Amino acid sequence: MHWPLMSLLTLAWRNLWRNYRRTLIMLLAIALGVWAMIVMSALMRGMTDQMVRNGLATLPGEAQIHHRDFRLDPSVVNHMPMPAGNLLAQLNSAPITAWAARLRVPAVLASEYASRGVTVLGIDPAQEAALGSLPETLLEGRMLGSPDDRGILLGASLARRLDTGLGKRIVLMSQDTENNVADRGVRVVGIYQARLQGDEERFAYVGRGALQELLGLEQEVTEIAVSAADYRAVDAWLPALRASAGPGLEVLGWTELHTFLGTMLAVQEGFVLVFMVVVFLVLSFGLINTLVMAVFERTRELGLMQALGMRPALILSQVLLESLLLLALGLLAGNGLALATLLPLRDGVDISAVAEGMEMMEMSATLYPLLAGRDMLLSTAVVLILGLLASLLPAWRASRLDPVRALARH
Amino acid sequence: MNITWRLAWRNLWRHRRRTWLTVGAMVFCNTLLIFLISVQLGSYQMMIDNSLGAFSGHLQLQHRGFDEDQRIRQSVPAVSERALQVEALLAGEAVAARGIAYALASSEERSFGIQVTGVQPAREPGVSTLPGLLREGRYLSGADGEIVVGALLARNLRVGPGDEITMLGSGRDGSFAAAIATVVGIIESGIPELDRALAQVSLPWFQTVFNMGDHGHSVVVRLRNLDRVPAAVVALQPLLAGAPELVVLDWDQLQPGLRQAIRSDMASAWVMYGVLILLVAFSVLNTQLMSVLERTREFGVMLALGVSPGRLARLVGLETALLAALGLALGVAAGGLLGLYLQQAGFTFPGMEEMNARFNLPERIYPPVTLASLLWGPLTVFLGALLAAVYPALRLFGLQPVSAMRAS
User: For position B214, what pLDDT does the model report?
Assistant: First the structure.
């Protein structure tokens, strides 16, 4: 006798609703588990995505080119020429969308009252704007106009600590290529606000040409920041860029430049899977329990079916089908609930209550959950595969019942 | 043994497999929670200890506004005497005075802007772990002209012990300050921000170089433990009475990110725990509801014999309590063993080293087993399981003896 799938399905479906309370509770549990899997991973993904984006905005870029020795010895002595030839051609070709050549040097800023050690960035404002690495908010004054702008742009917090303000003059001191300390008076032309207070205190912006002149450089720079929009796809274009840069230069992707962010992303990917499996394991006890009881209640019935000639394989698939239906319904409800939770949160969750703690992790005060299709698929795969595996034991037991004994049960 | 207890215990074992599966869910969840919570609480404690121990201490006496603006003129007069007064008020705690200034530091080949801290070499090791983290050379002796620097700063300046550093800055009165210091030691804390910026000289010399007179910028207190902070803040109030320009800041004000980082981590962790506990509660609910429904006839008979519905509900409640207690006991035992093992062997996962460095944590953590980490999670699971029995027990009150006895 060969039972068509449809009748098997009908049987499994009806069996499922014999004890509707138990099925509903189990459904609720599966839906809650799936909901938690998807919502938690969307929140975690949103958090890491934002951390990486924010980190890359201040790094800046998804890759950087330096003189081979610059990272160990961040001095203007380790400068490099402006990109030309192959490298320039590579920088201007797709998929690279923006690049900026900059002078990044340690310096001291001194007002008449105080002095601070900072990192001065000599920039070409147009290139930085394309890269998106200029400070987001200008509080007072103006941005730098051109590479030859002789003014300086300070962070609000630094300006307060230096006891200076818009229009005032401060002294910029830095080491030139001859290892002498070069200094020049510069006028504060703008005060900016950064997302993180630490950045306001660390970075001051001046025109690249003006800084080159002060430090005795012609057209040389110390850093080229490169961006191609998608931070996950760096490996696709990095080798070509590295080849065109030649052996004297070091070309590194962001995961190597900012190892914390790289590790963070990898750990988050792993953690999503671990969390899903853990939630499922807690769920699996209930699932096995439900199936064991469902089989137990039907011992006589299953024995009768076997006595009438139903093959064990069919009984096995019938129980598995019942479990599959339960899991699928739970997944449907869980995914639906998760979507219903996440869609209203698209515009961000306000977490400003813990903003300063978030600052330690390079986050801002609003969290944007990131719903990835991959996470929904992953949770579905985890629940279906592990769920069916867990159901194998009760299903196998059901198919191995001895018909005579089973029928003799009270 | 009371008859209700005996009945409850026996009822529990009518379906051995079901009971063990439900207990298994609880044990698994409890073990997991004990593991997660002890790692979590252990790392919070270390995060606080390491962050505060490195530099800021638990409390600081400062000039009002110095914490935000860090200006050299926002100073504490007679800072060494202040330190002695603080020490007298807080018997037995470590106290040290400091001064902070900014200068351009130049070696033969390189120049960097640095923050110079004037410290009391004899007292500083009591309030900060940094003097103990020397990689080369020795700590300050108290003599003029000595400086210890962080490892990355030494690398950037290309100096080692014996080399000279020229410092240029401005003094408290705005005058020009210049000095030459000899590197005597190099400190490696493993925290890049500190190793890149750290430069310490002795306080009296600092006061001479930066024209500070007897002024400094802070009196740092390191307490024996965190719980003493509020009492210590109160104890220091008499010092502030005659000096309205001074303030006492506690660790939360000195490092505002720390408590919030812990709070946000705690919040997201508890959402996760909540989901796990809820899932276990569903499992218990399912088991208990089934066990009530399959005994409808039996309960009908007992009602007909004169047993009150309240007593039946208590019976179901007791069954659940026994079930949950079993899960609690076995879970705490399993989790406790795991915890004790981790306390010895330590715990790490790939990538933890980089993540932990950001929060001043070592690459491998040894979470201590405490009463809180051992019972917090399992007790919540226990309560969740008891709550899950409410619905099945309440159903008993609606039971009609006659129709119940007819139920199939």
Answer: 95
A28/B282 Cβ within 8 A: yes
CB proximity list for B407: less than 8 A, separation 6 or greater:
B296, B297, B300
**Confidence at B358, pLDDT banded by 50, 70, 90:** low
> Cβ–Cβ of B113/A117 closer than 8 Å?
yes
The set of residues, in sequence order, having a beta carbon less than 8 Å from that of A23 and lying 6+ positions away, is A16, A17, A290, A326
Give dist(CA B71, CA B101) in Å, integer: 8
Q: Which residue of B has its CA nearest to A287?
A: B283
- Bridge partners, residue B111, by sequence: B106
| Structure tokens given for A383 | 């629940």
Distance from CA of B89 to the nearest CA of A (A): 32
Cis peptide before A135 (omega within 30 of 0): no
Does residue A181 belong to the interface with chain B, where contact is any CB pair within 8 Å?
yes
Q: Are A264 and B359 in contact (CB under 8 A)?
A: no
**How far apart are the CA of B87 and the nearest CA of chain A, in angstroms?**
31
Contact A252/B at CB under 8 A = no
Q: What average pLDDT does chain B have?
A: 90
Q: Residue B106's closest CA among B45, B147, B56, B137? A: B147
Chain B: residue whose CA lies nearest to A41 = B272
> Is A108 near chain B, with CB under 8 Å?
yes
A261 compared with A251, residue with greater pLDDT: A251
Closest-approach residue (CA) in chain B for A179: B109
Chain B residues closer than 8 Å to A281 by CB: 28
DSSP E strands in A28-144: the ranges are 63-67, 98-110, 115-123, 137-141
Distances in whole angstroms, Cα of residue A169 to Cα of each of A107, A152, A206, A305: 16, 9, 13, 95
CA distances from B71 to A169, B56, B57, B112, B245 (A): 18, 17, 20, 19, 14
For the ranges A254-263, A349-358, B227-236, the one whose mean pLDDT is highest: B227-236
Look at residues A199, A234, A158 and name the one whose alpha carbon lies nearest to residue A57. A199
| Six-digit token string for A149 | 């702008």
Residues of B in contact with A291 (CB under 8 A): none
Angstroms from B354 CA to nearest CA on chain A: 6
Nearest CA in chain B to A69: B156
Phi (first) and psi of residue A110, to 5 degrees = -130, 125
Identify all chain A residues contacting B261, using CB atoms and an 8 Å cutoff: 354, 356-358, 360-361
pLDDT of residue A140: 93
B110/A117 CB distance under 8 A: no
Residue B149's H or E segment, with its range, is: strand B146-150
Q: What is the ipTM score, two decimals?
A: 0.82
Give pLDDT, residue B54.
86
- Per-residue pLDDT, B359: 66
Please state, in angstroms and rounded to a whole number, the distance separating the CA atoms of residues B323 and B23: 7
Nearest to A107 among B113, B256, B280 (CB): B113
What is the Cα–Cα distance from A269 to A400, expressed in whole angstroms?
A: 41
* DSSP structure string for A347-387: T-EE-GGGHHHHHTTT--SEE-----HHHHHHHHHHHHHHH
User: How far apart (Å, rounded) are the C-alpha atoms in residues A6 and B378?
Assistant: 45
Question: Cβ distance A321 to A403 under 8 Å?
Answer: no
Residue A49 predicted with pLDDT over 90: no
Q: Which residues contact A89 (CB under 8 A, 6 or more apart)?
A: A244
In angstroms, rounded to a whole number, what is the distance separating the alpha carbons of residues B149 and B235? Answer: 35
* Mean pLDDT value of segment B93-114: 92
At what angle are helices A259-297 and B256-293 packed, to 10 degrees?
Answer: 10
> What average pLDDT does the segment A94-113 reach?
91
- State how beta strands B199-202 and B111-119 pair: parallel
Is the model's pTM score more than 0.80? yes
Residue B353 has what pLDDT?
A: 74
